[in-house]
Every structure is written in C-alpha cells, then in structure tokens.
Amino acid sequence: MILKPTDLPGIAEITPTRFGDHRGYFSEVFKDHWFRENVADVGFVQDNQSLSREVGTLRGLHFQLEPFAQGKLVRVLNGSIFDVAVDIRTGSPDYGRWVGVTLTAEEGNQLWIPPGFAHGFLTLEANTLIHYKVTAPYSGAHDRGLRWNDPSIAIAWPDVSAGFTLSAKDEVQPFLTDLEPAFTYTSDDT
C-alpha cells in the first residue's frame, strides 16, 4: 500500500497495490494491522455504501459529535468523487483549512479522515458508488454539518456542467463562524 500524507496533518491518501494481468487485477484494499501501524490505531465498526446517480451530487459537509465522532476511510467502487475534509478542531493551527483529493474506482485510492474534520464529496461521474468504513455507528442525535460553500473556507469544488445537487439539509447547514465548538485540538492529533 502506498501512503501519501496530505497538506492537513492526520488526513492521508492510501492507494492499495494492484496485481494484474489480462484477466483483471487483485488488490488487498484494507489490512487492519497495516492501517493501525501506518495510519491510525483505530477500529472500524461499520461499513457504509452510497450511490449517487447524477454528476454533481454534493453530500456534506458532515460530522458527528462525541461519543459518536467518526473517523472515515472512503473509497469509490464505481465512478469518481472529489473528496473533502475540513479541520473543525478548536485551537488547531489548521482550523478552517480544507484538503481535497479525487478518488476514482480506476485508481482505487482511498482517503482517511479522522474525527475532528467535517467531510463531504462531489460526484464527478454518474452512478458513482462510494464505500466507507467508519469508527463509530451513525447517531442522528449527534449528526451535525457545515455549509458546503462557506466563503471563509472557500473550497475549490470542481466545475460540473450539471451544477450541484444537494439535500435540503445540506443547503442550510451553519457557516464555520456559527458552528458550535465540537472538537478541541491537542498536540497528540498530529
């Protein structure tokens, strides 16, 4: 597996090795021991899958409060996405900064997003299928979000000819300046 740090400490792109021939390929997409030693010493409790039928489907930016804060390992099974993480840890030197990585089924790359970051993605192809592992189960009472187009964050979402399609919930999430503190940065977070 190839581990590539991003511009935000704690966020990492992981590309599993593929062994292929004329028939196709084989790839170990997740190895618990390797992940714990090289990325984060966490356990995953649930696998989720979502299908976005249209190009330009934007989901996020989402996070959950403790004790259900989620780390996410995101990959694409079909299609491609622009995957984004925003640092929302109070006191972090990177508070409000974002990083984005294009994830594709063809490349097989993944993005690790630990708790303390809001997460969202934009589909770049029709019928994009996303699979992600999470470190805590979903809790509606702890579910929160951040505005996808907050000018103080200024995410450079890719242009998609179809425009953006969002849920009603994602259209009205708070701006970063209105977000109640949810996570606190510590020196152990890096």
From TrEMBL:
UniProt entry tagged with the keyword Isomerase: yes
Catalytic activity: dTDP-4-dehydro-6-deoxy-alpha-D-glucose = dTDP-4-dehydro-beta-L-rhamnose
GO MF entry, a single one: dTDP-4-dehydrorhamnose 3,5-epimerase activity
Enzyme class (EC, first level): isomerase
EC number: 5.1.3.13
Keyword Nuclease: no
Record's function text: Catalyzes the epimerization of the C3' and C5'positions of dTDP-6-deoxy-D-xylo-4-hexulose, forming dTDP-6-deoxy-L-lyxo-4-hexulose.
Protein name: dTDP-4-dehydrorhamnose 3,5-epimerase
Natural source organism: Pararhizobium capsulatum DSM 1112
